[in-house]
User: Fold this.
Amino acid sequence: MNPIVITSALTLTLLILIICLLIYKRFKGSQIPTAVLILLVCFTAINAAVTYFVYPKESANAYKQLVWQPLAPSNIPALVASGKTVFVDVSADWCNICKGNKDGVLQREAVVNLLGQDNTVLMLGDLTHSDAKIEAFLADYNAFGVPFNIVYSPQYPKGRVFSRVLDYNEVIEVLTR
Assistant:
């Protein structure tokens, strides 16, 4: 589960407990201003809405089920000629932008569903450690670092390069063409 969702859920739980405690104390005769209770209820409602709507309940487990092949640039033209879409992700374990791309875009349910289609081949270039073959592939596109994402398809036989920071809507649009 996303750490932000966990933090929001814990905050929400704490707020609800505080509200219950204050209501209990008020019934026991303690002076608790109504404005404090109203403010806490409003803050709790806002926190609940953010938790529910901003961070939808998507599972990263589906992403883990995707089958990634090692990057093999020489296989891409034949795959595209046979009607396949090839999605290439060149990343590294130490790359924070790569992790952000995975969390914010590649692990989202709609993207996972598109990447998991039968006509899509996934290739991963892991640059956690230097690899001459992957670096040569990047040099072909004047890219000299990670992250690097490109999709090949009958619509994009030469490849469609994405920006370093992936945009969810752009990835969806390109993969649905």
